[in-house]
Amino acid sequence: MPPNLPAVVPPQYVQGTLDGLPPGTPGADGWPDEATSLRQTTFVVLDLETTGGAPDGGGITEIGAVKVRGGEELGILATLVNPGEPIPPFITVLTGITQAMLLPAPPVEEVLPSLLEFLRGAVLVAHNAPYDVGFLKAACARHGYTWPNPRVLDTAALARRVLTRDEVPNRKLGTLAAYFRTPHQPTHRALADAHATVDVLHGLIARLGGHRVETLGEAIEFARAVTPTQRRKRHLAEGLPKVPGVYIFRAADDRPLYVGTSGDIATRVRSYFTAAEKRARISEMLAAAERVEAVECAHPLEAEVRELRLIAAHAPPYNRRSKFPERVVWLKLTSEPYPRLSLVRSLGPDDAAYLGPFSSRRSAELAAAGVHDAVPLRQCTPRLSVRTTSPACALAELGRCPAPCEHRISVEDYTARAVEPVRSALADDPQVVVDALLARIGVLADARRYEEAAVVRSRLAAVLRATVRMQRLVGLTRIGELAAARRAADGGWEIAVIRHGRLAGAGTAAPGVPPRGVLDLVRATAETVLPGHGPVPNASAEESERILSWLERPDTRLVETSTGWASPARGAGRFRDLLVRAEAASSRQLPTERT
């Protein structure tokens, strides 16, 4: 800006009419969509001159902004700004802006409304954008203006990704302007630097075509700190559908490396090639991946279930969760004259009482310890005879076991005192176990044995957690067939047919299509699921729980069910509040339990 330029230049802004906007360009009141091509995107290229201090709401001495689209200049906003503070001498030497030039200039609070209006509906571009955006955001916050939070493209960051060290020694604006031989050169004045940044932006966009970057979203993401592997493999995300489903990263030999799910496959897979993805194992996975396979699903519930089944079937090396559902453990009340709790890996075709499933042996042992604290169930492992006796262990001497090994208690009394309370707690009402453990916690707390009380509390939480979970699962898996529907975001219906806790069929009724006909078709083509034994006879516990979460949503409607869906009236569910309090207390102070 020449020294004889007036302190304030009114914005020279030319805005085309809506009819004149290119196809696909957002309206004037909306921000550009990420799918908008760079040719159709409206940019406001901005540069600030400041006093050199920190962004505290002031310090701006000059603003220069140029609005462009498709290589055409649409308008200019340029003004000096009175910072309300002295200008350091080195800033005057650098920019040529003197204190006398700024005295008649408006303060920043008077300039902000025009600038914010100028930014409306455009992408903000700046060289070292965090610096300029920081000053503008601080000024808006200080003077009561709402920062519109536009999309920002940093030409310095973009140059670091597009140009190599062999091409330019650094990414300074002057260096880039010289490299691209721009008609405008930076002079440390806002408008001149903004024009130079426009030329550099156009030069960088021309280079982006070789990287298959054509839209605004791709350019913004490309400017971020993605790894060379992400940049090299981003073509794997091309051509994927924008629908709910499962995606599978596969190696050169077609091995599944990673399985995931999303309501929008294309968008989710693209996120793996952005700066937001920083997981080391995913970077390793991307290096080995050669293609991405998409499995389209009717709706998100089907996608979640298919993901679980694929992970269980293939155990992809880069998935951490849900890989080995067969490794769960159960607590079984054995079938013998003097039953005990036994840790088992699978459920037998008998009528034994079970508690689980548990994801680890430690959690199962914690729940078993809670049961043993509450009822006089024996803890030894030998099978006891009703005819001959065997020596008692130390627990009998401590009064912790009724010593059925020495026949100090009859089979009938043992069943009434120890076995039936456990059976009732697992299948129906855990009141006896809960009362006994709460009483023990109270005794220990009164004796100020707080660490021991915390251990018992963790055992109580383990028992309640397992019984609540199992009774919820049993309530669903005992139903031969359940049909449910949920309103989709587009106005249609998501339909699911569940048989014995397993998703047997899924479909979607488009808006305006009667859902009953779609439900009949889904039911006719659904998987046949036969009754089985145990709390989860035909699916993993995780699959049935995903289905339960979907069914229990307020907007899900139950259409038909072959039998009633119910939980025990006095079941473990009524202790949910107690479980929440126990888990919250355990999270604040994790007890150490010695075996």
Percent of residues in helices: 25-40%
Structural class: alpha+beta
Helix count, DSSP H or I runs of 4 or more residues:
20
User: What quaternary form is this?
Assistant: single chain
Which strand order does the major sheet show? Answer: 1-4-3-2-5-6
Mean of residue pLDDT? 87
Q: Output the radius of gyration.
A: 34 Å
Q: Flag low-confidence runs.
A: 1-29, 590-595
Distance between the termini: 79 Å
**SS strand fraction:** 15-25%
- How many E strands? 16
* Shape annotation: elongated
Query: Describe the biggest sheet?
Result: 6 strands, mixed
Pfam families: GIY-YIG (PF01541), RNase_T (PF00929)
Protein name: DNA polymerase III subunit epsilon
Organism: Plantactinospora mayteni
InterPro entries: DnaQ, GIY-YIG_endonuc, GIY-YIG_endonuc_sf, GIY-YIG_UvrC_Cho, Ribonucl_H, RNaseH-like_sf, RNaseH_sf, UvrABC_protein_C
Description:
This protein has 595 residues and is α+β, with helices and mostly antiparallel strands. The protein is 39% helix and 17% strand. The strands form 4 sheets. The chain has a 6-stranded mixed β-sheet with strand order 1-4-3-2-5-6, sandwiched between helices. It has a 4-stranded antiparallel β-sheet with strand order 15-14-13-16, with helices on both faces. β5, α4 and β6 form a beta-alpha-beta unit. The N terminus and C terminus are likely disordered.
